[in-house]
Design goal:
Structural class: mainly alpha
Strand content: under 5%
Oligomer: single chain
Number of domains: 1
Order of helices and strands: HHHHHHH
Number of helices: 7
Radius of gyration: 16 Å
Number of strands: 0
Length: 146
């Protein structure tokens, strides 16, 4: 009998985010979120944890922007071709009446182009390990998603 990932339970902010994603964004991003939480809680001990978690977070953040584009004036559902990710976020925040100087907005701007830093490998070196910098990144992403 194998391990059943469906048996893993989320608590606190992680559970709240999972439920919001399942209801408002879709089953894919919710599943990605649950997987990231399982890795961060060390249910899965992987040498490449940072890389996998970062990739899943990047996919979730992209899905959130796609969903939010559908409810904002001036944005088409398809991805903006000429706008930078930060410009796209600014338009979304404006449409949602969230100020750019809001702490969560500032965290989203700060990390908008930083997902790739942890996602991609460093030449042929060992995979990065979870350290204080990545833990700070994770904490900020949880704050953004909540």
């Amino acid at each position: 009998m194998g391990f059943n990932f469906e048996d893993i339970k989320l608590f606190g902010k992680e559970k709240e985010i999972y439920e919001k994603f399942a209801k408002l964004v879709g089953p894919g991003p919710a599943a990605f979120w649950k997987d990231t939480c399982m890795i961060m809680q060390e249910f899965l001990k992987l040498q490449s944890s940072i890389h996998i978690v970062s990739h899943l977070l990047r996919e979730i953040e992209s899905a959130i922007r796609s969903v939010l584009q559908t409810v904002t004036e001036g944005l088409k559902y398809k991805k903006l071709e000429k706008e930078s990710k930060k410009e796209e976020i600014k338009i979304i925040l404006r449409a949602l009446d969230i100020k750019e100087d809001d702490p969560i907005s500032q965290k989203w701007f700060f990390h908008a182009d930083k997902f790739h830093k942890f996602t991609h490998r460093d030449a042929l070196n060992q995979p990065r390990q979870i350290d204080e910098e990545f833990q700070d990144f994770w904490n900020d992403i949880v704050d953004i998603f909540i």
